[in-house]
Structure formats: structure tokens, C-alpha cells
């Protein structure tokens, strides 16, 4: 089931209509449209357009356009400098934060701080101008605010749902049945009190961040002990993150039980995904790849 694309401002709506009318002039009177991005073809973008044919009923037509052309046209609302600023921001987030593992791997969700630095702010402002053109049923790439700090949240909703169903009992225990799978997806797409609750729940957050159920439980329990009674948890990757500045893509970094089978499986999986993402980055611009929303096969 494909839901209509959310359009919150008239100016963005006008820009979206221009994008569609560029490829298909008969849709100038279109009242709404939405995009199906999960296609068998890597090169064709399917846009479902609800068109008012000056009758009482609306008819749906399908416009198929070349993905590359669509992306180029969408990026044309930015200056060359703004495109570069957006690329630089996401390159940093892909290489030095774990966001790439959620877009191109199996990690359900990733979070990175949007630091108060001019280059990051300019890059994010540029992204927000084109983000409506790349709304996806499967992926979330958006800004959330928690405790006054801005964060970039990237989520693969298919993997989020899979994690939810696998650990539904834990979600129900934490949220008393209020956190359904639909409510979870919605709180990742939109700012709201449920997202704030989620960020405060170390157990559920750890599950969604792909740290593993046992590791999330250990961290959850440890944080509730008095400071002097807390036990030492080892880092998931023994190499200090600073050394990955010489060898991007940084692996996920979190506290864990290194001896558990769960952690060993996660190490194997994330290492395999890291190799695949590095290989992809040598061949392609990861920002442009993100716009296609196609994950590399590993």
C-alpha cells in the first residue's frame, strides 16, 4: 500500500508539481501524487499521479521517468555550491557516523548529531530543500530534536518493522501497548512525544540501533545501577574511532558483551557491510546513491 506523499507547504507543492509537469505536461492540473521507489528496475522511477480531468472523479495515471533525469531535475533547485554542501555533509555522516549501515546495510536505524557548525548547517539546509522530492516508503532521513540537540535520524522501516516484530514483547513492556508498528514508523517520520520517549528508553533504542537484544539489555540494566556499582562493558570495536579517519567507513561503536554469540554475529555482519560500503564508495558518490534508495547487495 503506497501512501500519498506528504506536502506541507504550498511552495514545496508548487515545486513538486513543476517537477512532474516537466516530465509529463498533462499533469499540470494534478492535485496530488506520490512516488513508488522500490522497483525492480534500477533506472525507472514510477510516479503515481492523481489527475483532475475536469470531472467529478479523479483518475490515476502512471508516469515513468528516467531516475537519473528526475534526480538531476530535482537537484536543479539547488545551486552548485548547495549541492556540494549537501554532498559534503552526507559524506561526513556516511564515513564518520553509522548512517551508511542503515541506508546500505541491515542496521534498522542510525542517529548522528547535527553539530552547530556552519558547514553542517548549510549542508542540512540544502538537503531540506530537496528532501520532499525523495520521500520514500522505506527510508526515513530527517531531523529530530532531543534535549535541545538536533539529530539526523536515518531508518530503514522494513528493518525497523522486522526488529519490532522480533521483540514485540519488549516494546509492549516498555510502552504499555502504545507503540504499535505503525506508531513506531510514524514517530520516526514525524516529531512528537513518542519519539522523545523512545530516545529515553535505552533498551528499545539499543534494539533499533542494531546493537543486539542482549547488549541493549545489559546497557539498559547497567545505566540503572548506582555509578559505583556499574560493571564494565567493552566497546564493540577495539580500535579507537579516531583511527578510522584514515580508513573511512567507521564501524558501529557501542558497549557490548564481546563473548556473546550475538556480538560475534554482529561483528561479522557489520564488517561484511563495511567492506561492501567502502567498495561502493570507491565506485560511486554515496549521496547520489542515497537518492536512488537502492542498497548494495552483500
| Alpha carbon gap, first and last residue | 28 Å
Portion of residues in helices? 40-55%
Global structural class = alpha+beta
How many domains, as an integer?
2
Q: Which sequence of SSEs, written as H and E, runs from N to C?
A: HEEEHHHEHEEHHHHHHEEHH
Uncertain segments are 1-42, 44-64, 294-298
Strand order of the largest sheet: 1-2-3
The proportion of residues in beta strands is 15-25%
State the main characteristics.
alpha+beta, single chain, 17% strand, 298 residues, three-stranded antiparallel sheet, 47% helix, disordered N terminus, globular, disordered C terminus, 2 domains
What would you note in describing this structure?
With 298 residues, this protein is α+β, with helices and mostly antiparallel strands. It is 47% helix and 17% strand. The protein has two domains: 10-71; 78-275, no CATH class. The chain has helices at residues 10-23, 67-75, 80-96, 99-103, 118-130, 157-166, 168-175, 181-189, 193-200, 202-208, 213-223, 261-283, 286-292, and strands at residues 30-36, 44-52, 58-66, 109-113, 139-146, 149-156, 234-235, 255-256. The two termini are 28 Å apart. The model is unreliable at 1-42, 44-64 and 294-298 (pLDDT under 50).
Element layout with pairings:
Blueprint: H1 10-23, E1 30-36, E2 44-52, E3 58-66, H2 67-75, H3 80-96, H4 99-103, E4 109-113, H5 118-130, E5 139-146, E6 149-156, H6 157-166, H7 168-175, H8 181-189, H9 193-200, H10 202-208, H11 213-223, E7 234-235, E8 255-256, H12 261-283, H13 286-292
Antiparallel strand pairs: 1-2, 2-3, 4-6, 5-6, 7-8
Helix pairs in contact: 3-5, 10-11
Amino acid at each position: 500500500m503506497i501512501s500519498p506523499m506528504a506536502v506541507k507547504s504550498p511552495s514545496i507543492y508548487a515545486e513538486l508539481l513543476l517537477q512532474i509537469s516537466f516530465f509529463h505536461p498533462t499533469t499540470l492540473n494534478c492535485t496530488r501524487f506520490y512516488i513508488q521507489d522500490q522497483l525492480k528496475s534500477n533506472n525507472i522511477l514510477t510516479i503515481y499521479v492523481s489527475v483532475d480531468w475536469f470531472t467529478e472523479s479523479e483518475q490515476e495515471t502512471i508516469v515513468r521517468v528516467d531516475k537519473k533525469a528526475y534526480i538531476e531535475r530535482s537537484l536543479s533547485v539547488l545551486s552548485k555550491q548547495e549541492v556540494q554542501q549537501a554532498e559534503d555533509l552526507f559524506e561526513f555522516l556516511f564515513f564518520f557516523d553509522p548512517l551508511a549501515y542503515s541506508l546500505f546495510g541491515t542496521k534498522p536505524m542510525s542517529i548522528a548529531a547535527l553539530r552547530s557548525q556552519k558547514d553542517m548547517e548549510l549542508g542540512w539546509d540544502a538537503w531540506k530543500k530537496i528532501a520532499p522530492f525523495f520521500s520514500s516508503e522505506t527510508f526515513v532521513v530527517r531531523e529530530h530534536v532531543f534535549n535541545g540537540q538536533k539529530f539526523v535520524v536515518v531508518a530503514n522501516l522494513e528493518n525497523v518493522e522486522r526488529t519490532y516484530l522480533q521483540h514485540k514483547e519488549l516494546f509492549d513492556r516498555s510502552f504499555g501497548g502504545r507503540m504499535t508498528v505503525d506508531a513506531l514508523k510514524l514517530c520516526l517520520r514525524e516529531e512528537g512525544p513518542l519519539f522523545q520517549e523512545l530516545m529515553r528508553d535505552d533498551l528499545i533504542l539499543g534494539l533499533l540501533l542494531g546493537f543486539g537484544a542482549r547488549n541493549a539489555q545489559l546497557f539498559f540494566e547497567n545505566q540503572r545501577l548506582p555509578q559505583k556499582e556499574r560493571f564494565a562493558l567493552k566497546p564493540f570495536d577495539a580500535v579507537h574511532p579516531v583511527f578510522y579517519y584514515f580508513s573511512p567507513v567507521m564501524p558501529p561503536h557501542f558497549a557490548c558483551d564481546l563473548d556473546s554469540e550475538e556480538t560475534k554475529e554482529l561483528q561479522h555482519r557489520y564488517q561484511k557491510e563495511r567492506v561492501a560500503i567502502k567498495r561502493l564508495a570507491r565506485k560511486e558518490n554515496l549521496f547520489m546513491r542515497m537518492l536512488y534508495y537502492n542498497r548494495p547487495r552483500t
